[in-house]
Amino acid sequence: MSGKFIPLKNYKRFSEEEMLNRSQFINDFLQTRRTVREFSSQEIPIEIIENCIKAAGSAPSGANKQPWHFVIVKNQKLKKEIRVAAEKEENEFYNGRATKEWLKDLEPFETNADKPFLEEAPYLIVVFEEKFTKTDSENISKNYYVKESVGIAAGMLITALHYCGLATLTHTPSPMNFLNKILNRPKNEKPFLLLVVGYPKEGTKVPDISRKSFNEIADVK
Fold it and tell me: Which residues of the chain have pLDDT under 50?
């Protein structure tokens, strides 16, 4: 075994009964997560958001390159700029880019090009993927399994925010390159996800949908 290794710390083995209880708890808990599109503007301590991002930053990644960067947007002017740019792309999507089949699949959710939540929610978290890392002004270091790594981190971030009692909306206007310009991010970064975060607005309703059963999403061989 080459390289530097340290003893595994903080690993705790539970009884099978405790493991079963924990697995049932996490299933029941995450089943309560719903995407919302109506947000309260009530403020939330930024330390909560920062801790959730720290948790997301513990995600596994290819060769431990940690190819992600999170930008917390709370400035109202920036949120307005993001909304204007996002709605421009959304208008093009709904009025030309999207196929008829895609638009039909979206009908139950009653979505459209208007995205007021981008201004109403107290925070936007923009997740960037880093295609490579700049080691200095002339050299770069390649990152591996970037989308897979960032996807795992984004999932952990959503889970952490839900655990804190916050609602989220995954928003992915396409293309999202406007986020680099508005947030002054370097060329080696590409927007992966725009996450809207806050409390649901009082009286918020969500689509009446169901989730696939275990047998529809998994097999035991």
Answer: none
